[in-house]
Amino acid sequence: MNAVVRPRNLQGNRACALAAIEAGCRFYGGYPITPSSEIAECMAAELPRVDGVFVQMEDEIASMGAVVGASIGGVKAMTATSGPGFSLKQENLGYAAAAEVPCVIVNVMRGGPSTGLPTRPAQGDVMQARWGTHGDHPVIVLTPASVMEIHAETRRAFELAERYRVPVVLLYDEVLGHLVETVAAPADAGASATRRFASGPADAYQPYRPGADGIPDMARPGDGYRTHTTGLIHDEDGFPTQAPARVGAVMARLLGKLDAHRDAIERAECVDCGDAEVVVVAYGITARAAARAVAEARARGIRAGLFRPITLWPFAERAFAAATRGARRIVVAELNAGQLALEIERLAGRERVGRLNRLDGEPLAPAAVLAAIADAAGATGER
Amino acid sequence: MSDTATRQIRLAGTGGQGLGLAGRLLADACVAAGHAVAQSQTYEPTSRGGSSRSDLVVADGTVDYPLVTALDALLLLDQAALEDAPALLREGALVVTDAALVPHPPAAQGELHALPLTARARELGNPRVANMVGLGALVGLAGWPAFEQVERAVETSTPARFRELNLAALRAGRALVATDASAA
Amino acid sequence: MDTRTELPFEIRDYLRLDRMPHFLCPGCGHGIALRALLNAVHELGIDRDDLAVVSGIGCSGRLSAYIDANTVHATHGRPLAFATGLKLARPDLHVVVITGDGDCLAIGGNHLIHACRRNLDLTCLMLNNEVYGMTGGQASPTTAAARYTTTTPLGNHEPVFDACKLAEGAGASFVGREVTLQAPALKNLIREAIAHPGFAFVEVMSDCTEIYGRKNELGSSPEMVLRQKHDVRPESYGNAVERPFRPGPWRTGVLAKNERAEFGAAYRAHCRAHHGGGPGDV
What we know:
CATH topology of chain C: Rossmann fold
Largest sheet of chain C: 7 strands, mixed
Shape of chain C: globular
Low-confidence stretches of chain A: none
CATH architecture of the largest domain in chain A: 3-Layer(aba) Sandwich
Mean pLDDT of chain A: 95
Number of domains of chain A: 2
Oligomer: heterotrimer
CATH class of chain C: Alpha Beta
CATH topology of the largest domain in chain A: Rossmann fold
């Protein structure tokens, strides 16, 4: 379909930056933090070539603030960070969710808590990505598992952010960030979503009155709408309200606005799930280990499958249910103490779900996942 | 695809020995030869001196698990970088070491070649091209990827002022193994 | 195109009248600052469509909602960060930041010093009323010695920030201070600050009658405003005032002004020099 450029080797973090620019990102506010800094470095070099702006802000909080400010200005904007910086960004990320300011936040996960293991991989921010900012809020979290997919999902992150006016978190681990892989990226993966700016008479415009798709058009400063943007709970006119009936209504729309679009937002890969007795749920680098483990299990006669969420939040519940309908055991493999496992247990019932966790700064190897599959298969009484 | 369907290579030494560059050049050569590559390297706080390695997983088609699990080949330029490599070596793996800097090479699971890599580099005028000497030896012994592809990667991806020296070192490494008699 | 500049200043032209009545307490000095800002905008002929006002959290933060322009009510302490992104992305806009002493000097202090260093073309109005008013009257980095607040029940013992010295030390290319008592001078100072090509910091000595004044028995609003004559030392007063309540003489007027490269323009020129094109060329 698309012209494919010659395969080349590309680092994960670099693929992220290049894809962002392809998606039309023209503002990057950053702060150095391991293991995400290559994204900032690449943006600093590349954005000036496309009339974009790179700025290294004074801290993580400021970089998120600048991204929100730039996006309010009508420009696609991104930042990247890792665990501690992601924590610091949460308040302004919540502002973006509340004020419905599109933006993309990359979190290249390292070991935590606190300064943790700065150079080692982890997947400990699954829940922070979903619930890190205070209060109930909409957010989309994407979790690619290869350099090629980092490229594709970064592009999709901008599509979703702009289309649904929501912060989108791109969540992957240190291994993928620094991994160099052969990619055959499309030379041009097609036009990227442009923001739906307000048009029509200014006096009839209500900044938060939803369109047919539940999403309001966004005013661009200078176009004559002179809107007010606030993190206070606000009514359709953009101004604060505390009237319970109005607060209830606007919160219902805000929290529900992604529901009608879950088919477009959710993405997951199923491998050999059709007849699987044991389904492994894994994402990011762990999914790569699981893919090999499932293949080896199959070679040994175990009916294993892999369910790999690519959209992590909102979780692809229907695809997951379909993939695990026949499975007796589900193994959730992740580099944390069991975070996505909580969601899987909620969906599949605790009795069906086993956990495989690693917290020592090393990725889970295929052999470990294979052993867990074999254990689970034994527990089913099949082998 | 299981790990038996991939070729896995580790280039290891100390920081500053240029193993990252050697890994990138080898990866580029593999891609030029039509393979898919996943390359990872040690990633630690920025400073010189610690052990450093560059791992490659090479496949036809796509690489499933991108980190090494069973090494087909190991280039070792410093004893300190041995780390977990012995446990990862596959039966019959090819091991190339610097004879002077690796006094205790891994026990013979495979084919060991202890070579004067740094000494040869010094003769060429700069001990820092030991990485290229080692790469030339490794590729010469493995017979794969095609030596010309590696040469081309060196030509296109190293700075002009080092190009000739790097190429000379690469070829010197191959020459070492053409006459090498130390095979275990 | 806004042609009202040719007409006499009428504040109603720049306010969102449907947001009235406003939220400020009777006697609050912030209204004087707001009027001075809008009057300056009028005199400069800035089209409301091209004006962006970014405010933080606190009493000062609420002012943006009343201004008929592109307004952003940011998070606590971060209006300068938001404004930096907005101005870099949209150099065509006039961006004014309204912040308070707590917002700007405490939680947002890091952003202030780096905004001063960068010298992006922003105008930062810090309305200093010496207290966290909206949260009920807690001490701020500018609460004067011995003053009572809800968090200094024994009287304040912490040293205060001299915000203008801080801004100047951090490299702001325009620094000024004025009192709400001198409304025309305040308007002129803000006008000069907005016209200045670079980061302009203006400290507005405001007053909080309701929360701070009452607790410290500083009198009614007129008394508090008149007190500025004694407590702050306008340059023209020389050393006539013997005992200002702050340590040392607090001068008003333009305190620092110098020409140095504006951050956004310098960045664009730098990029253009390397790549031919450059942001903002479109």
